[in-house]
Amino acid sequence: MTLQYQYPEHLRHTLDTLPSSPGVYIFYGSDQTFPLYIGKSINIRSRVQSHFRTQSEAKLLHMTTRIEFHQTIGEIGALLLESQLIKNQSPLFNKRLRIARKLCSLRITDKTTQFVFSNETNFTHAQDLFGLFKTKHAAIEQIRDLADQEKLCYGVLGLEKLSAGRACFRYSLGKCGGACCGADTLENHQQRLKDSLESIKIRSWPYPGRIAIEETSGDKAEYHVLNNWLYLGTVSSLASGKEMVTPPSHFDRDSYKILCRYVFQSDAVKILALD
């Protein structure tokens, strides 16, 4: 049953308590232990106001009894904290950023293409890995599309069996370049595949150990501590960051994407080695 939208008058007073600054906000229902929704913004008050005006969120607004917030220095801290809190608390209305413990990737060498999984392979330091897929099916769909674009062979890609000395069926249709029968070299086939996937090649962790990302606002600073693409937490001093220990953990897809997109492509971010 879909609830009819009504402006959440019972939450109107909450807006006066929310800051117009970066951070994370949390919607709670009658159960104050588990949140309904966690979000982030560079302006918490403005973002929550937009929720109040969104008709498709009528059920969330009806169930919400309290809104909590955690301020951060800037956007990077808000992104990392939001991701961490969603994974740890699994809010009811958050579909995105939930933990994916078993990711799939493609290991592409000069001669082979394999499906590998994060519970069996350390994605942090592995070489020749392309793509971070939530399922093997999603990875297969990606390379099927590429096969059509680049005339790649399903057999060489491991999507179907090849008969010894015979071309695949797609070659007879002009959809395969012929790596299956010698009309194309295996090396050329694999290089076209790598080139097509270059934008999603997984980067190895580029530091010997832990780092701190300094984020500033005026005369204030925070240090976001990470190791092996895993966000460990945010501290107010480098000394506190050096005391943080990296727990055994899975590859964190979301921290990886946040860092690649917002940090390592920016010359304005200061990165400090802690080890």
Automatic annotation (TrEMBL):
CDD domains: GIY-YIG_UvrC_Cho. Keywords: DNA damage, DNA excision, DNA repair, Excision nuclease, Hydrolase, SOS response. It comes from the Bacteria. One of its GO terms (biological process) is nucleotide-excision repair. The keyword Hydrolase applies. One of its GO terms (molecular function) is nuclease activity. GO terms for cellular component: excinuclease repair complex. Residues 20-95 form the GIY-YIG domain. SMART domains: GIYc. InterPro entries: GIY-YIG_endonuc, GIY-YIG_endonuc_sf, GIY-YIG_UvrC_Cho, UvrABC_protein_C. This is Excinuclease cho. It comes from Buttiauxella brennerae ATCC 51605.
